Amino acid sequence: MALDEPKENDEVFNEGGLTFLVNKDLLDSVKPINVEFVETPRGSGFSVTSALSNKKDGCGSCSC
Question: Please, what is the end-to-end C-alpha distance for the chain in angstroms?
Fold first, then answer.
């Protein structure tokens, strides 16, 4: 996750006052995407999960 400006090949989502950008080509292969703000004893931040998280082959995360 990073700060970015919308580009021609991005899908733009506005949820709960936040704007999310996802590359349209990537979106087709990873949807649905779930973004949650979480607080744990180690700190707080965003948790991002997608269809890639459930795949058994490959690395199973968006950071591949």
Answer: 13
**φ/ψ (deg, to 5) at 20:** -115, 140
CA pair distance 56, 12, nearest whole angstrom = 29
pLDDT digits (tens, 9 = 90+) for 12-54: 999 888 898 989 988 888 888 888 999 999 999 989 898 887 6
What is the count of structural domains for the chain? Answer: 1
Residue 62 lies in a domain: no
Q: Are 32 and 50 in contact (CB under 8 A)?
A: yes
Q: Is residue 1 part of a domain?
A: no
Q: What is the pTM of this model?
A: 0.59
User: Can you give the residue range of the structural domain that contains 39?
Assistant: 10-54
